[in-house]
Design goal:
By secondary structure, this protein is mostly beta strands. The protein contains 4 helices and 24 strands. The strands form 7 sheets. The chain has a 7-stranded antiparallel β-sheet, with no helix packed on it. A 4-stranded antiparallel β-sheet has the order 4-5-6-7.
């Protein structure tokens, strides 16, 4: 699917290699919105702050990112000055930042994620900040070694850390099999139990697919799939069978795709730096059928939690609770290990 109008990626780097090369002469025009995405391994800090990123513009305008001695991270951009809590990142841990500048001061966000101690900190300045591209471009190529993933989008990149499917996934509907990219609100999906699920909300969002943000490709013929599908790590996949009943005393459970990458049937997919993902939500969430595989549609709680506005809402229990028990990471690893042992016993 082609990017929507205005969705232009100005530059993307991985381990210092330019996957999308920035223009030699950056556009000097102010942009209504711009997003800088970084992923890095926290270096040791013994005293003075360590600079992780510095934009190419003059210091008063350039985006700067620092790690402080107490493990906090500081982001500065003109009048914007935002800091995480102390001990947010420790040496050797992998963190990512999605910083969105907004000329209206309504959509700005600094979204920090620690991938090794699952924690997230989002903060806003609420200040109008129309950015230029040179404010995000690296002042020195050495910053591209510190930040092993770096990307600049010339638009406001929305969060995608919730269940979603990439193009090519074919879902069962009352009108027959339908690729997810052709679905429209109002479509009637069929669940793995044969129930009809009216599709109430669908949104397509671009996602940076490198580093820890890389999606998960589920291979055929694992999980009941007849063709490969690509999903976000937050997507919950139904598992059943003897190992599930033995380990968890449940007929069926849900497992996050990101917790299954140690299995033969799932792996990180970094072949495309950017993909469009399709977020689906039904009135009654359940496991939609993709071949013989059940994939849970997003909960309203997933959608609300992912949004930058973080508006507190009184959600009903049905909007918060998945349709089946969800395994934690340890449980998912135990299931993967049991499945591997089972295959070896049959070989």
């Amino acid at each position: 699917m082609a990017p929507a109008a205005g969705e232009r990626w100005a530059a993307i780097w991985q381990s210092g290699e330019a996957l999308i090369v920035p223009d030699a002469s950056p556009d000097p025009e102010l942009m209504p919105e711009m997003t800088l995405c970084l992923e890095f391994t926290v270096p040791p800090v013994t005293g003075r702050p360590v600079r992780l990123w510095q934009g190419a513009a003059e210091p008063g305008r350039a985006i700067g990112l620092y790690v402080l001695a107490d493990g906090a991270f500081r982001l500065v951009h003109g009048e914007i000055d935002l800091t995480t809590p102390p001990d947010f990142g420790r040496a050797g841990e992998t963190l990512s930042l999605r910083y969105r500048a907004c000329a209206r001061g309504r959509g700005d966000i600094a979204d920090f994620t620690n991938h090794d101690r699952p924690q997230r900190h989002r903060c806003r300045a609420g200040l109008a900040c129309a950015a230029r591209l040179d404010e995000a471009l690296p002042r020195d190529e050495r910053f591209l070694q510190i930040c092993h993933v770096a990307a600049i989008a010339g638009f406001g990149l929305a969060p995608t850390d919730m269940p979603a499917l990439a193009a090519g996934a074919i879902l069962s509907t009352t009108d027959g099999p339908c690729p997810v990219e052709r679905l429209r609100p109002g479509a009637r999906l069929i669940s793995v139990t044969g129930d009809v699920l009216p599709l109430r909300w669908l949104e397509r969002r671009p996602r940076l697919c490198l580093g820890r943000q890389a999606p998960v490709r589920l291979r055929a013929f694992y999980f009941g799939l007849e063709h490969e599908i690509c999903v976000t790590p937050e997507t919950r996949v139904m598992r059943a069978g003897a190992a599930v009943e033995y380990l968890f005393s449940e007929e069926r459970v849900l497992v996050r795709a990101g917790d299954m990458i140690a299995s033969r049937g799932a792996h990180r997919d970094r072949r495309q730096p950017v993909q469009v993902f399709h977020h689906l939500m039904c009135d009654d969430h359940a496991c939609a059928a993709i071949d013989g595989c059940g994939v849970e549609t997003a909960l309203l709680a997933d959608v609300v939690a992912a949004e930058d506005s973080r508006v507190l809402r009184n959600l009903a229990e049905a909007d918060r609770k998945p349709c089946l028990p969800v395994l934690d990471r340890a449980g998912a690893q135990a299931l993967v290990a049991a499945s591997v042992r089972g295959r070896r016993a049959l070989s």
